[in-house]
Amino acid sequence: MNYKLVIAMFQVKLKSVYNDLTKSEKKIANFIMKNFEKTKTMTSYDISKKVNVGQATVIRFSKKLGYSSFNELINSINKLDQEDILEKNISLGDDIATTNTKIANQYIDVIKLTLELNPVYVFEEVIEAIIAAERIVVLGIGNSAIVSTDFVNKLARVGMNAFTNLDTHLQFSMISNLGKNDLLILISDSGETREIIEAAKLAKQNKTRIISITKFTKNKLHAYSDFILKTASFDINLRLDATTSRITQFTIIDMIFINILKTDFSKYKEIITNSDNAVKLLKY
């Protein structure tokens, strides 16, 4: 893995899980972000004493970031450059050009991490499940509803029986009629949204397989999913009302869709052409 990607992965992982950390774990995160050089030579015991938390909390913090151990986290930190971290932070004093560049760079980072988090074999299994499904329902709540609508439009355009609706009650009616040959795709950044979890429970009762597109850190939705495509998102510095959640979600659905097209390009090209010709009949 190259140097810049290691930096990006650590930063994005930390920002992605920050709001889910306990008070003690946030103390560890804040200490690391402010003391990279010191941290490089510290043990989990050293950090626990420095921030006044238990050593087990430091190890648990490491695993929340997706590392298998504290030593793996330290190895990543040893490859970080303090100057690089500071350069990516957005400040109120930045001009428009600088702010735009920093936002774009953070989007690039989160897309690279999305690719890193999801092995090819998971995409292969997901694509196979989508192609084989008799009916597909896609559900996203709030910001994720935009992504679910876009995904259904793509799937329907190539002739798949895919459905979504902004009316949650209607969505649940559709989900209740799914069976073992159908598929439910749930899109949720947090993986904790009540409607999403209830939809997953309902689908499980009918033995409907579930694909989830959700945050890589452990959440409730993971437990109900047959296939998990992992996202990484965080609020842009200063909380300027911009998030990366939709960027990583759109990246995943585009990866799925393009690879579906490639499984039988001639077939899907013909379907798309027929669809386009039908739409042209409505133009005056």
From TrEMBL:
<dbReference type="InterPro" id="IPR035472">
    <property type="entry name" value="RpiR-like_SIS"/>
</dbReference>
<dbReference type="InterPro" id="IPR009057">
    <property type="entry name" value="Homeodomain-like_sf"/>
</dbReference>
<dbReference type="Pfam" id="PF01380">
    <property type="entry name" value="SIS"/>
</dbReference>
<dbReference type="InterPro" id="IPR046348">
    <property type="entry name" value="SIS_dom_sf"/>
</dbReference>
<keyword id="KW-0805">Transcription regulation</keyword>
<keyword id="KW-0238">DNA-binding</keyword>
<feature type="domain" description="SIS">
    <location>
        <begin position="126"/>
        <end position="266"/>
    </location>
</feature>
<dbReference type="InterPro" id="IPR047640">
    <property type="entry name" value="RpiR-like"/>
</dbReference>
<dbReference type="GO" id="GO:0097367">
    <property type="term" value="F:carbohydrate derivative binding"/>
</dbReference>
<keyword id="KW-0804">Transcription</keyword>
<dbReference type="InterPro" id="IPR000281">
    <property type="entry name" value="HTH_RpiR"/>
</dbReference>
<dbReference type="GO" id="GO:0003677">
    <property type="term" value="F:DNA binding"/>
</dbReference>
<dbReference type="GO" id="GO:0003700">
    <property type="term" value="F:DNA-binding transcription factor activity"/>
</dbReference>
<dbReference type="InterPro" id="IPR001347">
    <property type="entry name" value="SIS_dom"/>
</dbReference>
<dbReference type="Pfam" id="PF01418">
    <property type="entry name" value="HTH_6"/>
</dbReference>
<feature type="domain" description="HTH rpiR-type">
    <location>
        <begin position="8"/>
        <end position="84"/>
    </location>
</feature>
<dbReference type="InterPro" id="IPR036388">
    <property type="entry name" value="WH-like_DNA-bd_sf"/>
</dbReference>
<dbReference type="GO" id="GO:1901135">
    <property type="term" value="P:carbohydrate derivative metabolic process"/>
</dbReference>
<protein>
    <submittedName>
        <fullName>Transcriptional regulator, RpiR family</fullName>
    </submittedName>
</protein>
